[in-house]
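This section describes the prediction task in plain terms. A model, or a person checking by hand, is given the sequence of a single protein chain and must write out its three-dimensional structure as a string of tokens. No templates, partner chains or ligands are provided. The sample shown here is typical of the held-out split.
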Amino acid sequence: MAEPPVVPDIQIRPLDDIVEVFAASAVLSDVWGGDHAGMPPNLLRALAQAGNYAVGLYADGRMIGASVAFFAEPAARSMHSHITGVLPDHQSHGLGRLLKQHQREWALARDVGHITWTFDPLIARNAHFNIRVLGTRVTEYLVNQYGPMDDGVNRGDETDRVMVSWALAAPPVPTPPDEQVVATVAVPHDIEALRRESPTDAAGWRLRVREEFLAQLAEGLVVGGFDDERGYLFVRP
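The expected answer:
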């Protein structure tokens, strides 16, 4: 008889001391391909001590992921999730969703109603997770939001981002039926592989998606959902 699979002991804990802070900074650096400036320990320590959301994700006592968010203006009852990452060998196991649900519960306990964050519109798996799984609402398309970034994920590319808002007490936004879809904007299935294999083609996708996305917004349409084959689904508000 085969032995049952070993299920790791998963925990999410606040970054309470400087050792954990440095470990989280190192994990996030590894996730982003060696970007040691992405979340420096001194900034992470300050955010944590100021009462913001700063946690580590542990498997069998080893930190394998981290997430950091900070509060927005008080009247907005919102916070912005700046960075969340899980080490590559632990990705695609539902841990990103686990972190987001923990973040949601933490925010609700502090009377926060919305969490915002940005993601690269070309990364289809992130669009699927954020829009289709979590049911967030796209609020903006941001051109070259962060300027040049010198990490293994973003180096050599412009940093266009989509801003989403997650209404924590509301049910997920459902995918619109086909009869409501007015336009679509396709994205490659694996932009990360395309960047490695054909940077010119990847750059072409960046410009194409930017132009088409902004054109649909200019027509007064909004993103109503995401489809793995068709891409972003635009509807009339």
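For orientation: The longest helix spans residues 199-218.
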